[in-house]
Each structure stands twice: as C-alpha cells, then as structure tokens.
Design brief:
The chain is of the alpha/beta class. It is built from 13 helices and ten strands. It is 42% helix and 17% strand. It starts with 24 loop residues before the first helix and ends with a helix. The chain binds thiamine diphosphate. Thiamine diphosphate binds next to α4 and β5. It comes from Candidatus Falkowbacteria bacterium RIFCSPLOWO2_12_FULL_45_13. InterPro entries: 2-oxoacid:Fd_oxidoreductase, THDP-binding, TPP_enzyme_TPP-bd.
C-alpha cells in the first residue's frame, strides 16, 4: 500500500536532521504526522511544543505553530498556549529526561488538571543529547555514562505514573509498531483531556552501544520480542513479566477538562456579578439625581 505524502507538514529547509543513523526519533515523528494527516486537521490550528533533547528537536522540523522551549518546560509552555487559545490542538513532543526528570513535576500536575494536551514521549531510556546519562526510565542494572557499573535507580513506568496523576488517555507503543503509534495519536487527540503516549524507541549510539546491543535492528527486534499486548500481559506472572513490557491502550477514562472547567468558572462568576433589574433602577435614579 502506498503511503500518503506527508511532506507538507515538514520544514524541508531544516533538513538534514541531527539524529544519528538508526535512531528511532524519525519513526515517531513520521507516525505522529500520519495520525495527524488522517485526522485532517487544519495545519494552522495545531501547536507543537517541545523541550530540549534529541527528541525535542522534532518540533523544529515540523511546519505547524511550533515552540522549541527549555529543558523540562515543554508542558508549562503548552499549558499556557492551551489556556490562551483552547481552540488549538496542542501536541507536546518530549524525551524521557525532559518530561520525567527535570520536567517530572510539570508532568504530574498537567495530568492532574486533565488539561487537553497530547504528550508523545520519545522514550529511549537515556539522555541522548548529552552523551548517555541514565534517565528515570533506564532499566535497573543497565549501563549509562553516569552508571558505568549499572543503574541503581528503579525506573518509572511512565504510564502508571501519569495514570496515578490523573491522565485520561494513556497508551504505549514502540517504534517497531509504527502504525499503532499513528492510531494512538488519533485517539489521544480525540480525547478531550490529558493524553499521554509512551513510545519506546532505540538509541543505538549511546544506549545500545553501552549495553552491548549490536545495532538499531537488534534493538527493534528486542522491542518486538519483549512487547506484550494487554491480553498476553494479563496472564503473565510477575516473574514472566521481568524484562517485558505491555503495549496498547492502557487507560481511557474521560473526566472534566481543565480549559472547559476554567471557562465555565468564568461564566458562572460573570453571571453572579450581573446587576439585578432593581440595582440597575437604583443606579439610574442616583445618576439622574
Ligand atoms: C536546565 C538544563 N539542564 C540540563 C540541560 C542539558 N540537557 C540537554 S538535553 C538533556 C537530556 C535530554 O534527554 P531526554 O529528554 O531523554 O532526550 P533525548 O536527548 O534522549 O531525546 C540535558 C540534561 C539543559 N539543556 N538545560
């Protein structure tokens, strides 16, 4: 099947991109665009916000309203934009470090508010841009530039974290399952509330090399072999779950969205302050006197 041409969403003058050979970031970026293309949204009504990191460079390559902000602060800028212009579809492209280390606080509070943002985490389990330091999603005992003898910090499950914090749509996929990513992007945007997509991706140059995985293809094969759909996952014992992870739509439970609640608060307040006919009469009288 021929794929749709999605070049109208790219700033082709910004290419070549900075990503290393074998990096999964381009697969995620393309899958996001394919989801957006299927939705047929007005390109000028989409805002893409990112922080700092290899993954966050994606915003610069996309021809929407874009902001490439500061490390860990993508969600704060995105929140401001959504509050000021709730009619926009706001997408946050971020890394595991950007959104769950320095930006972890903003992540849980944006989820708690259920503000209508669509977060796509390029989860490569490492700080790619700065040379392979461990991140909050680096698996236990894996090697990183800052953990040469193995990582001692137990990793976050970002889907469990955002579920506990209050996100209303949560899904996980991998760069091996690219078409699934596009479908989740569509569902995320259709959810009126905080949507969170945890996309497992490969960093062959830092993570792969330090952990003795031969190349990007082997990393993709690991994703294929270790991913379990929800049904398969549900029958595994804790022991069988070791080294594996669940992919699929993990949570979909709508509740009131923040910008809508904010708008109705304003309207309720204005209504309360409407002058009653009697007080208007009194005012006219006092003006006439
Ligand atoms: C305030 C601040 N602290 C630290 C940095 C350095 N820095 C830039 S990107 C980055 C980590 C990026 O990791 P991640 O968000 O996982 O993205 P990746 O590069 O792996 O895609 C760090 C620590 C910075 N730019 N600003």
């Amino acid at each position: 099947m021929a794929l749709e041409d999605i070049s109208q969403y790219l700033r082709l003058d910004k290419f070549p991109h900075i990503w290393c050979p074998g990096c999964g970031n381009g697969i995620i970026m393309q899958s996001v665009l394919r989801g957006l293309d299927k939705l047929g949204l007005d390109q000028n009504k989409i805002a893409v916000i990112s922080g700092i990191g290899c993954s966050s460079r994606a915003a610069g390559y996309l021809d929407f309203n874009t902001l490439h902000t500061t490390h860990g602060r993508a969600l704060t800028f995105a929140t401001g934009i959504k509050m000021a212009k709730p009619e926009l579809t706001v997408i946050v492209l971020t890394g595991d470090g950007d959104c769950s280390a320095i930006g972890g606080n903003h992540l849980i509070h944006a989820a708690r508010r259920n503000i209508d943002l669509n977060v796509v985490v390029f989860n490569n389990s490492i700080y790619g841009m700065t040379g392979g330091q461990f991140s909050p999603t680096t698996p236990l005992n894996d090697i990183a530039a800052t953990a040469p003898f193995g990582n001692l910090d137990p990793p976050f499950d970002l889907c469990e974290l955002t579920k506990a914090a209050g996100a209303t749509y949560i899904a996980r996929s991998t760069t091996y399952h690219a078409t699934q990513i596009s479908n989740f992007v569509i569902k995320a945007i259709q959810n009126k509330g905080f949507s969170f997509l945890d996309i497992i991706t490969q960093c062959p140059v830092y993570y792969g090399r330090m952990n003795k995985i031969k190349d990007a293809v082997d990393m993709l094969k690991e994703q294929r072999d270790n991913a379990r759909n929800i049904k398969q996952w549900s029958i595994l014992s804790d022991e069988e779950k070791q080294g594996k992870f669940v992919i699929g739509e993990l949570h979909n439970q709508p509740r009131p969205e923040y910008t809508e609640s904010y708008q109705s608060l304003i309207e309720r307040h204005i209504e309360k302050r409407q002058p009653s006919p009697k007080s208007e009469e009194r005012e006219t009288k006092s003006r006439e006197e």
